[in-house]
């Protein structure tokens, strides 16, 4: 039994998870609390937060701003340790809230950054990233620097960079929050399709309820800070085929809003 | 044409200042020009003394270029060391600031006694005055990397060294150029002070010799050349930065001043 609060890397998983892992949880967060000491006194980000994600499950965490969502992702990625509770997760790669692409690298080199970080040569990283850029509709922008890419393209490159890290778990921190409404809807549809074709265990945090219902297999509603789970909604609709206007989607959205305490 | 239009205010101001200067000297009696030479006398000296000024300019230019090079390499290496070790930063930074308060005028003759009459004491003086700006801007560049980017690299299992190589180093390069551009101006002053002690060539030496010989115009001519040299050096570094780091230049655009 590992020490309390220790992060245990369960598996050195290849990018494609073996199917037999399905029964097992890829991410297991139980009764986790985390408090930050600041100059203005302690701030408790999480208080007894729990969450599970099975392999290849897309779990979307929704909560008001500042409810500890980013802290939750950093715990899952092993960037922080909980004060109490357990976090067990297969290796996870982060997609930060802002795209944080490196301005001096072209799209293809940004996409391959995770490979370079592990010591791959530039040529090998490009060979690995090239076909993906094509799949993501970015083949004409391989050599373009981020400053000349649109917001949606930048998010796609950023997502690809995280995907190419080859970790079984993807931790996506409000990936589309910075986009305009139209691009955001496009990108949500795009991500849903990518995840159907390339299944990964995904923990996605957002404050957009509609995004949660469109993308998630399961939606976890968090309380305001200090964050904990207040409600869980199973979305049984097939991913990639959900429309915002479907009565079932609308109904789920209303349920999620109600759980967040938003008056209709 | 547009560039000329942008430079017009500076040209008009310079012409006006030179005009006022010329008038001011001309309104005094002729001996006054031994104290303050008129612009036309300076221009004349630039022409008649061109051989002397050119050969001495080459000496100073070599000192300045080598000095900036030494300062950039040393400053960059120290910045990297400081970046990796907080202890080293706390140890070195106060000394670094203190070193800038030591008057070069006093240091230069001591260095001549210590290191001789050759190029070396000049390089040390120039590097010493240029070094500081490069360390400060490079260190700031290294430290300014977004902490979220460093977290991202950690989830990618990047080692400390690879994170430095792929993320922090490129991010700091604009800082190196900024430091070198600041150094371009002060290094010229450093060169003059260095040449005032134990040298027999260079524009600083020309200035030092001209004044007691009542050749003030020649002294001012040397100063004019030094100023033009500093401008040229600054512009050259701006151009080099633009070519080497186009991604950093994009954000600022147009005005290098």
CATH homologous superfamily identity of the domain at 23-91 and 167-260 in chain A: P-loop containing nucleotide triphosphate hydrolases
**Percentage beta strand of chain A:** 15-25%
Structural domain tally of chain B: 1
CATH class group of the domain at 23-91 and 167-260 in chain A? Alpha Beta
Shape of chain B: globular
Mean pLDDT reading of chain A: 84
Helicity level of chain A: 25-40%
Which secondary structure elements does this structure contain, and how are they paired or packed?
The complex is a heterodimer of chains A (264) and B (257).
Chain A: E1 25-38, E2 41-54, E3 58-62, H1 69-76, E4 84-89, E5 92-95, H2 107-111, H3 113-117, H4 122-135, H5 151-163, E6 169-173, H6 181-197, E7 201-206, H7 209-215, E8 218-222, E9 229-234, H8 247-260
Parallel strand pairs in A: 3-7, 3-8, 5-6, 6-7
Antiparallel strand pairs in A: 1-2, 1-4, 8-9
Helix pairs in contact in A: 5-6, 7-8
Chain B: H1 2-27, H2 39-48, H3 50-84, H4 86-101, H5 104-115, H6 119-143, H7 147-155, H8 160-195, H9 203-210, H10 216-244, H11 246-252
Helix pairs in contact in B: 2-10, 3-4, 3-6, 3-8, 3-9, 5-6, 6-8, 8-10, 9-10, 10-11
Please sum up the structure shown.
The complex is a heterodimer of chains A (264) and B (257). Chain A has helices at 69-76, 107-111, 113-117, 122-135, 151-163, 181-197, 209-215, 247-260, and strands at 25-38, 41-54, 58-62, 84-89, 92-95, 169-173, 201-206, 218-222, 229-234. With 264 residues, chain A is of the alpha/beta class.
């Amino acid at each position: 039994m590992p020490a309390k609060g220790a992060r245990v890397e369960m598996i050195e998983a290849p990018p494609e998870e073996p199917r037999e892992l399905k029964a097992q949880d890829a991410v297991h967060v139980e009764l986790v609390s985390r408090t930050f000491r600041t100059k203005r006194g302690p701030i408790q980000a999480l208080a007894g937060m729990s969450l599970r994600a099975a392999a290849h499950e897309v779990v979307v965490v929704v909560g008001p701003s500042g409810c500890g969502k980013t802290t939750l992702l950093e715990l899952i990625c092993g960037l922080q340790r909980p004060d109490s509770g357990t976090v067990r997760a297969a290796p996870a790669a982060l997609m930060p809230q802002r795209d944080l692409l490196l301005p001096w690298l072209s799209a293809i080199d940004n996409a391959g950054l995770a490979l370079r970080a592990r010591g791959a040569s530039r040529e090998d990283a490009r060979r690995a990233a090239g076909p993906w850029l094509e799949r993501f509709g970015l083949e004409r922008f391989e050599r373009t620097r981020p400053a000349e890419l649109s917001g949606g393209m930048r998010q796609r490159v950023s997502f690809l960079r995280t995907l190419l890290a080859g970790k079984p778990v993807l931790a996506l921190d409000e990936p589309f929050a910075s986009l305009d409404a139209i691009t955001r809807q496009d990108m949500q549809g795009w991500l849903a399709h990518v995840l159907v074709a390339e299944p990964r265990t995904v923990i996605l945090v957002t404050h957009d309820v509609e995004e949660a219902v469109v993308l998630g297999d399961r939606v976890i509603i968090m309380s305001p800070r200090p964050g904990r789970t207040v409600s869980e909604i199973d979305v049984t609709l097939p991913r990639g085929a959900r429309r915002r206007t479907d009565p079932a989607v609308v109904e789920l959205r209303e349920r999620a809003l109600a759980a967040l305490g938003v008056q209709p | 044409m547009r560039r000329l239009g942008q430079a017009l205010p500076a040209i008009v101001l310079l012409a006006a200042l030179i005009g006022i200067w010329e008038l001011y000297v001309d309104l005094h009696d002729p001996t006054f020009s031994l104290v303050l030479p008129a612009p036309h006398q300076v221009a004349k000296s630039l022409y008649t003394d061109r051989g002397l000024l050119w050969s001495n300019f080459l000496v100073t230019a070599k000192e300045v270029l080598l000095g900036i090079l030494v300062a950039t390499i040393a400053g960059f290496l120290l910045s990297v060391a400081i970046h990796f070790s907080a202890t080293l930063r706390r140890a070195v930074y106060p000394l670094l600031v203190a070193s800038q308060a030591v008057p070069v005028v006093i240091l230069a003759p001591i260095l001549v006694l210590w290191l001789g009459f050759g190029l070396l004491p000049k390089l040390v003086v120039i590097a010493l005055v240029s070094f500081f700006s490069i360390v400060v801007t490079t260190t700031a560049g290294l430290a300014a990397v977004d902490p979220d980017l460093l977290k991202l690299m950690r989830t990618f299992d990047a080692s400390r060294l690879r994170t430095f190589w792929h993320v922090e180093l490129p991010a700091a390069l604009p800082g190196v150029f900024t430091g070198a551009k600041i150094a371009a101006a002060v290094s010229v002053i450093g060169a003059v002070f260095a040449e005032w002690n134990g040298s027999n060539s260079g524009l600083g030496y020309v200035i030092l010799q001209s004044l007691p010989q009542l050749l003030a115009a020649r002294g001012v001519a040397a100063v004019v050349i030094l100023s033009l040299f500093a401008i040229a050096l600054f512009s050259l570094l701006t151009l080099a930065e633009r070519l080497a780091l186009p991604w950093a230049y994009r954000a600022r655009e147009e005005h290098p001043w």
